[in-house]
Every structure is written in C-alpha cells, then in structure tokens.
Structures
1.
Amino acid sequence: MRGRNFRGVHYVPAAMPGITRLRGALAVAAAALALVTVASSANAAVRIGISDQNVSMFDNPLFAPLEIRYARYVTPWDVALKPDSLEAAALDQWLAAARAAGVQAMVAFQHSAGDNCPREPCTLPDPADFRRAFLAFRAKYPQIKVLSTWNEANHSTQPTYRDPVVAAQYYLVMRRHCRGCTIVAADVLDNYADHSQKMAKWLTTFSSVARSARLWGIHNWADTNRFTTDGIKAMLRAVKGDVWLTETGGIVEFTTQAGSRSFKPSDARAAKAMRYLFQRIVPISKRIKRVYVYNWLSHPTNRWDSGLIDHNGRKRQMYDVLKRYSTR
C-alpha cells in the first residue's frame, strides 16, 4: 500500500521521541488493520470447495465441520459414451455421494481413459466427436450445471496442450448445448517450469476463438507453494471476467517422475502455503470468486501429496487453516 505525501506535516521537536514512536506505532497498526480488513472482505466473498476423486470424502466425519458446499470431479471427455466403464461407475458413485451430502458438483473433462500424454496414445478429439460425447453427457446428467471444458488444458499430460484453438472449440460446443450452465472456459496450470508468459500466451490464443468467455480456472500450485503471485496476475491480465482457483492448496510432499524431490515432506510448510493462499493470493482481485482446495486424502504410494487428511485418517495443520476460512 502506497502512502500519500502531505505538505502540512506538524513538526515534533527532537526532545519528544515518545510522540514520534507512538505515531509510528499507530501508523503501522493502521496499515496492518487495513490489510486484514481487505483480506477478510475478499475472503468472505469467495466460495470454497474441494477438488477430489475420493467418494469416501463425503462420509468422513472430518468433512462436515468444514461446511463445504462445492466439490469438483475430473472425468474422461467421452465417459458418457462408455456407460459400462469403470470411469462411468466411479462418476455415478461420486455424484450420488455429493448429492446426498448437499454439495454442488462441478465436473471437469480430460483425456480418455488409457491415454498417456505426452506419449502415445494421446488423442485430441475432433470437435464433432466432442459434441457427440457432450450431448450424451447432457442426456445422462442433466442435473449437472457447473462444468469445466478441460482439466489443465495447457499441460503436456493433456492432448489440448499444443492446441488452444481446438480447446476453445470444445468450450463453444458446451456453451451452445448447455444454456444456463456455468462453464469454466479454460482450466490451466501455472506450471512453474513453463512460467506465466507461456500460460498467458495459451490463454490469449484460446480467448481469440472463445471471445465471449468470462469464467476461467487456474491451478495455481506454483504461486501458492513458491509464495509468489506471478501466475494469478498473468492470468488476470490475459483474460476478461471472473477467475476460479480450481485446484490449489499446500503441497506436503512431491517427487517428480524422474525421482527428484521438489518438496520434501513438511506439514508446516503446506499449512503456511494454505495461509498464503487466503491471505495474499485471494485478496489480489475481486474477480477471484471461488477456490477449490485439492485434495482430501493422501495416499502413501503417490508421488504427490497435498491431502488435508493423511493416509492414516488424521487431519493435518492445513485442515485447520482451511476450516478458519471455509466456516466464515
């Protein structure tokens, strides 16, 4: 916060240092209060959810105290064309559990089951095929009104990685055939290795096709866990409209596929990242309307761990951090 310059400053003699210190202390206190007030008002306007594939989350006794009313699920883009698949069964179970818990479901699409992007197979659907799959999805799940075009569409693990134009065409299909739905146009990752400029370029190309898009999603893992704001600021500059943080939170531990540890195990650091998320990132803009924390439960064999609950079922420090914001 920048201070203002005033010409009529009262002179305080050097023989009265106590008054000077008092004024300094009051100024610091006022600035701190202003920061807390801004952060509190911004956080109060943000809706908080959880992104997780685990159906048992809704029945866990630690879930209800968070007062979460929004949840996000990722499924293959062609799931409705394969009603007998394991992915279709898992989606049905998750949606039923979310509904029973009184939670609004958001569904995000991604590559087909069995795809192994960036290696083969890695199939980029033709827009006509995507339309057929989406119409089947709408016919089977007409109650789902909150959707995301494609999960982490700018990442190499997705076939849309190098083709934002086609990804934008998917969005236009969804917009045309889901009137009244809330649709996240592009759901991107602020990949720390790619830097925010590359993400912004992908978004700019996407928005040149989907000109009417006014809702965007970002997985701001780099910002939250590297304690920066580069990614979210780049996105706010690149697009018009509201932004949802569709996957975010504190990373407890992460080992790359090559075996390098990006984050050594630390519950305390993950809690610090969660506080940074709500105290520094969310208040940046009133355009940030929703936050989905990922994820609920850790798994001992996964290279990635950002679970609010450890694999023994015990809550972590960042669970309590989240609770302070989700129950306001």
2.
Amino acid sequence: MARLPYVDPNEAPRQVREVLQAMPPLNVFRTMAHAETAFRPWMRWGGVLLNDLALDPVLRELAILQVARLSPGAEYEWVQHVPIARSVGATQDQIEAIEGGDTEAPCFTDEQRDILAFTTEVVRNVGASDQRFDAVTKRLSPREVIELLMVIGQYMMLARVMATTRMDLDEPADPRVAQDSGSDSPLRPGMTREEEFVAEGALLTTVGGTLRVPVLSTPGMIGKMEGNAARLARSILPENQGTVGFEVRVKHVAGAREGARCTASARLRRVIDGRKLRFDVEVREGDRVLGVGTHERRVIDLDAHARDVTAS
C-alpha cells in the first residue's frame, strides 16, 4: 500500500488538474502531482526526455531498464518501460537479458553493451570510470552523453520516489501519448493504421550497383512510413484539411529482398496544439522489424496550401 495518497484531479489546483486530465491516470503522475509548482515543468522535462533527444531511443530505453533493474523497489519503472522499449525497437531477448543481469549477452551490439556498462557505473558509483567514459564518448557526441546522463538521473530520481512512497503498480500505459489540454483536434493519440505493400519497382535499390541483389531502399521504406501516417491523419481530418511532413527520425535495421511482403504501421503518439502530429512509425516483414522511428506532420488547409504552391 502506498505511503502517500494519490492526488485526485478533481480536487487539485487548476494547473495540476489540467495536466493530470491530459495524461493516462498513472500513479506516478498522481504522486508527483503533490509537488504542485514543480509538477508541470517536470512533466515537460519528462516529455523532452522521451520525445526530443538526439540520443537513440533504443539506447535510452535500455538505460532506463538498467536503472530500474539496479534500483530495489522500482518495479513500477520496469513495468511501464518494457512496452515502451519494445515500441522503439528493443527486442525481447534484450529485455530478458537486462532482467537477468546479463548485459554482455550476444543480443546486444557493442554500442549497447558500452551504454549499459556506463549506466551501471553511474548508478552504482555516481561517476563513470575513465574506461567506461572513453568507450561511450567514442560512440556518442557530447550532446548525447549529457542526454544519457539526464535520462539516467531522471529515472534514478523516479526509482527513489517509487521505492520510498511504495507506489502501487499500474498496468503499462505509454506516457508519450499525451493529448495537449485544450486541443479540439479530431485526431486522438493511440489511433493506428497499417498498410501492406510489396518491395518492388521504385522501392528497390542496388545502392548504385554496389549490391548483387536489389533490396528495399531506405527512401522507399521512409516513403511508405510517411504515406501511411498521412493517410491515417487524412482519414480523420475534415475534408478541407490534410498534413505535410516536416521531420523523420528513422533507423533502417534490417533488409528486405525484392518481392518481400511488408507492412507499414503508424501510431499517433501526440497531438500538439491541434496542429502538430507526432507518430511512431514502423515497417515489418512478418514479425521482423525492418525500420522503426518517429515522424512529425503538420495539419494544413488544403486550399491555402494549393494556392501557396501554385504561386511559388
């Protein structure tokens, strides 16, 4: 049983109530909401760490899971972040290896092993050794190193709140799907769409003749991700509205041969001010992930857009 009561949104001050009503009803938010003046800035900070870093999201989630595993009483953190880790491309083998304490397992890349070892030293010893620091700085930029330390620090802090307050476990709910309060957009976080396609024709490449067989190209894969996200939005928006893409962050993690039957999927993660849409996007061949990442689009007036393009 939790040592502190959970904040009731209906009884909270307005600035706290608005944030709680826009988020999944998780105990972590209803606990942190006791810090009334810090709660909204802390939520923004957490959103940046989960959405807007240069740090690879798989490395971020592996580090978070390692923090949770090394922190007694932080089961809540583990339960919530296992599905998030999967959604950004971490494998079940990697999750099970961290849970079992085997951070040298062959399912990890050399880079991932270095990040896990670095995280372990920071959690246990406060600072990383010269050996671990040098290994990580050979792989990450200074920006990414500091972002990694920010992520480790955030989830060390949360682990201590969880353990000290004896926070009750919730069912997993991805906090990245927040709907900004006050938005009247018909689009809602959690909406999904899938589209099947065959790797053929213009979607293929031999990379300038350097490959012996054609494969699904990175631009072709991204085009399918973007088109699927656009059609998801278009199916919900009013007739006079559409979307244009302005950012893609994608990793092409596996190849697909000519003729492969693939599936592009999009999940709307966040709606910002009713106009900016952030999607989780993925392409698979069966159960095998080919590409994974995020994509952002902006809602536009189709008539105004047509006039602007014609005039330019």
